[in-house]
């Protein structure tokens, strides 16, 4: 492999990128724009769930129950209701997602052996948010019922009652359970996979469409020199994108980066090399820019978004789909980024993912070299 010939191809590609603002915009501006859009728009946090209350009791006991909701950051009481019709209208118009109905005899029955029914109505058209809202509402009601039980026993017996089981949950790595802390690292993996494959999917196909491939074939350059020379400029751009994404995650989204920074850029380099080689393989196979870009988008975006563990837990998928996820390189990069960002772990934990990512990169580069032929047909 001749370094001079490889550098000549790389220099030619650099000149092309400089003279084509669209390529430069696709390489730098689009990843940053996607990170901004997804970073701010995509959130799985359920805070300030709009809520309406039909308090038919109007007693101190019902107001105490209501205080467990108003004192929580998960609920935002939008106003009282006086009938089921008003509750239904509030949920239909999306003014409220959840409704609390307290019966008229709540105060009288709250200390009786037969507990009064408290109704919670939830808009199930958004099942994920509804499930989380029900969980938060149950916690608020259970906290009220526990306080009430302890006070009642203390009042009737005069004894101090202790809770039989004191549960103290502690969340590691993402203490506040903010979704942005694991969405941003996952987004970096998905965006870099798509952009890297798109960038190189146009390189060889462009030469074929413009008729310049014949001139390249007539030179003494070897296939691996051509591929390496075309990959180098986009590899540098990809690493610049990773640097910008990490800086945005650190200073714009305030995602904690607890792990080793050189390790982060090292695994990003391996991932980029594999993704760029995949794009190059698509470009060599199709020889058509439109078809190559469409194929690159289909083969990278959907698998990375749905099957990498970025949005949906792989453990919850059917066994057949779980087996398919092992073929998605973003799965390993997402796991690496989450481990480095949030857990601060190193190669002793993430070594297998690095090895599998390296195998993917070598396989894609090897296939691209095998597929490329210095022939006109």
What report would you give on this structure?
The mean pLDDT is 87. This protein starts with a helix and ends in a 6-residue tail after the last helix. The protein is mainly alpha-helical. Helix 7 packs antiparallel against helix 10 (223-251), helix 7 (180-201) runs parallel beside helix 11 and helix 11 packs across helix 12. The chain is built from 15 helices and 4 strands. It is elongated, with a radius of gyration of 29 Å. Strands 2-1-3-4 form a 4-stranded mixed beta sheet, sandwiched between helices.
Give a quick rundown of the structure.
The protein is mainly α and 377 residues long.
* CA distance, first residue to last residue: 24 Å
Structural class by SSE content: mainly alpha
Spans where pLDDT lies below 50 across 5 or more residues: none
SSE order, one letter for each helix or strand: HHEHEHEHEHHHHHHHHHH
Treating each run of at least 4 consecutive H or I residues as one helix, how many helices? 15
Cα radius of gyration in angstroms: 29 Å
Mean pLDDT: 87
* Biggest sheet: strand arrangement: 2-1-3-4
Shape: elongated
Q: How many beta strands in the DSSP annotation?
A: 4
Beta strand %: 5-15%
Task: Provide key terms for this protein.
377 residues, 66% helix, mainly alpha, 15 helices, elongated, 4-stranded mixed sheet
List the helices and strands and how they pair.
Layout: H1 3-19, H2 21-41, E1 49-55, H3 60-70, E2 75-80, H4 84-92, E3 98-102, H5 106-109, E4 119-122, H6 127-157, H7 180-201, H8 203-210, H9 213-217, H10 223-251, H11 261-286, H12 289-307, H13 319-325, H14 329-343, H15 347-371
Parallel strand pairs: 1-2, 1-3
Antiparallel strand pairs: 3-4
Helix pairs in contact: 1-10, 2-7, 2-10, 3-6, 7-10, 7-11, 7-12, 7-14, 10-11, 11-12, 11-14, 11-15, 14-15
């Amino acid at each position: 492999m001749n370094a001079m010939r490889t550098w000549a191809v790389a220099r030619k590609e650099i000149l092309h990128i400089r003279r084509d603002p669209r390529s430069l915009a696709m390489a730098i501006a689009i990843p940053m724009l996607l990170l901004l859009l997804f970073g701010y728009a995509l959130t799985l946090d359920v805070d300030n769930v709009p809520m309406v209350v039909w308090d038919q009791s109007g007693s101190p006991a019902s107001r105490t129950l209501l205080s467990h909701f108003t004192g929580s950051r998960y609920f935002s009481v939008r106003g009282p209701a006086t009938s089921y019709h008003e509750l239904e209208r509030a949920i239909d118009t999306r003014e409220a997602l959840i409704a609390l109905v307290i019966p008229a005899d709540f105060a009288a029955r709250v200390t009786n052996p037969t507990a009064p029914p408290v109704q919670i109505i939830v808009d199930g058209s958004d099942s994920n948010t509804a499930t989380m809202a029900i969980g938060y509402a149950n916690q608020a009601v259970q906290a009220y019922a526990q306080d009430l039980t302890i006070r009642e026993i203390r009042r009737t017996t005069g004894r101090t009652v202790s809770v039989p089981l004191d549960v103290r949950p502690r969340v590691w790595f993402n203490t506040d359970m903010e979704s942005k802390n694991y969405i941003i690292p996952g987004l970096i993996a998905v965006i870099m996979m798509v952009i890297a494959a798109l960038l190189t999917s146009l390189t060889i196909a462009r030469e074929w469409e413009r008729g310049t491939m014949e001139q390249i074939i007539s030179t003494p350059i070897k296939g691996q020199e051509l591929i390496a020379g075309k990959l180098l400029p986009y590899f540098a751009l990809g690493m610049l994108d990773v640097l910008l994404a990490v800086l945005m995650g650190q200073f714009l989204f305030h995602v904690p980066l607890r792990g080793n920074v050189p390790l982060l850029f090292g695994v990003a380099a391996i991932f980029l090399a594999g993704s760029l080689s995949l794009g190059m393989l698509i470009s060599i196979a199709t020889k058509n820019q439109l078809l190559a870009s469409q194929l690159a988008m289909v083969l990278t975006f959907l698998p990375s978004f749905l099957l990498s563990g970025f949005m949906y837990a792989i453990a919850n998928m059917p066994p057949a789909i779980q087996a398919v996820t092992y073929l998605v390189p973003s799965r390993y990069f997402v796991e690496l980024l989450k481990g480095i960002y949030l857990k601060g772990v190193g190669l002793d934990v993430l070594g297998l993912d690095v090895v599998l990512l390296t195998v993917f990169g070598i396989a894609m580069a090897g296939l691209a070299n095998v597929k490329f032929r210095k022939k006109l047909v």
